[in-house]
Amino acid sequence: METHVEGKKMFLAGEWVDGKQWIDVIDPQDGSLVDRVPAASKADMEACIEAAKAGAKTAARMPVFERMQIIGKAADYIELNAELYARTISKESSKTIREARKEVGRAVETLRLSAEEARRITGETIPFDQSPSGQGRVGYYRRFPLGIIGAITPFNDPLNLVAHKIGPAIASGNAIIVKPATVTPLSALMLAEAFFHAGLPEKILSVITGRGSEIGDSLVEHPAVRMISFTGGLETGLSITRKAGLKKVGMELGSNSPVIVLDDADVEDAVASSVSGAFWAAGQNCLGVQRIYIQSSLYETFRTQFIDDTERYIIGDKQAEITDMGPLITEKEAKRIEQLVEEALAKGAVLETGGVRDGAFYSPTVLTNVPENCTLASEEIFGPVVLLYPIADLDEAIERANAVDYGLQAGIFTKNLDHAHRAIEELEVGGVMINDSSDFRIDAMPFGGVKQSGLGREGIKFAIQEMTDTKAVCFKLG
Question: Member of which family (predicted)?
Fold first, then answer.
């Protein structure tokens, strides 16, 4: 298959462009060179934004059926070359080949949902005569594209999270500039390739590779960019909000997600779901299970089974079909996790299993008796570490689940509808999964958090709402 990624180019306003400087893309498993991509300059970003101004006009004029066709063709292209996309994801990121294949499937679905939602960008009629001054008037409102969307994406889902920015932006008639994670740019460039082959008009889409310190501020601060859609860490998110100025900002900033297991739960299901939710993608998952609160009467049974399942996890070569978990994205990240665990152990936590680092690999780790004054207990770990706590009842579980500054998603395992509805009402999160771990999501659902977990909602329909503005129209009749 012809590929522009192999040519070490970035996708600038519909053209494949070389750079004067380069960034190595490294496989975290063995430190080998996967590819090189351009290290864009501030001038490159400014040129990109100027081109996107024209692209936004083109995108806004594009009929809905054309948007749908182009997005659908891009989805077809990815599906046709699914294994190549999966291998690329696995090589440049932490994901095993099986995890990468699932991400490719989700990205295809994300784009097809985007094409479908393009036909549903609708408004409503307004009864102006509800007010005496409105007599003799009729009207409605419509949704219009914002113009230029700036998207900054993370390393942990290097294809699908980019699709979650590009699909809704094009579906809603916007131009979009994507700055992918520096360590995983290849999947984003391959997504641009799919739109290139699908016939997307020039200047609507750019995927510009480079370091955030060089090009990030230019994208965030430019007044022509009308929205910043960011997925990443809290500190970067706070910095963006200070710099963005008067524009829309949508952010998903992670969490330290809780799961509650009550004494009437299906233990095997709760264990299996929570183990998967804790260690998927080496725990580098914004929805990843971090804190599990188990009712005391069930605690020992759950703890034993959870440890047994964790110790059966196969760690190793990402490309091997049998592997359950690969390395973290860098050795630096693995060392960070190691230090957090050591801090918890020094303060009295008990290591039940795991706690071993080998380069960028860190074994699936289970801790108990973790004091509340540990970093692990209150901040996002973003690694393969899970904390188990016994609780007396649902009241205690909800109180402890809410006692942090994050609130993305939560899970609860129970057969009691009253308990489920109490959790829905009282958990301070953007989503509650009943008889699932916090790590459940479909790409059509509204997705986002409260408190420090972010602003706004993703999920195709909801992202389109964020990427459009309403315009009211009123006719005064003669």
Answer: Belongs to the aldehyde dehydrogenase family.
Active site residues: 252, 286
Q: What tokens does 383 get?
A: 């690694």
CATH architecture of 5-253+454-474: 3-Layer(aba) Sandwich (3.40)
Give the mean pLDDT of 193-216.
96
Q: CB of 73 within 8 A of CB of 198?
A: yes
Q: Which residues of 371-409 are buried (b: 16+ CB within 10 A; e: fewer)?
A: eeebebbebbbbbbbbbbbbbeebebbbebbbebebbbb
For residue 13, the one-letter residue type is A
| Separation CA 211–CA 232 (nearest Å) | 14
Under CATH, domain 258-442 is a member of which superfamily?
Aldehyde Dehydrogenase; Chain A, domain 2 (3.40.309.10)
Share of the chain above pLDDT 90, in %: 97
pLDDT digits (tens, 9 = 90+) for 35-48: 999 999 999 999 99
Q: State how far the alpha carbon of 248 is from the alpha carbons of 164, 224, 255, in Å.
A: 17, 12, 22
Residue 66 clears pLDDT 50, i.e. is over it = yes
- Domain residue ranges in the chain: 5-253+454-474, 258-442
Which residues on adjacent β-strands are paired with residue 474?
Answer: 139
Instruction: Using alpha carbons, select from 419, 425, 464 the residue that is nearest to residue 444.
Output: 464
Residue for token pair 């004054």: 373
Rounded to two decimals, the pTM is: 0.95
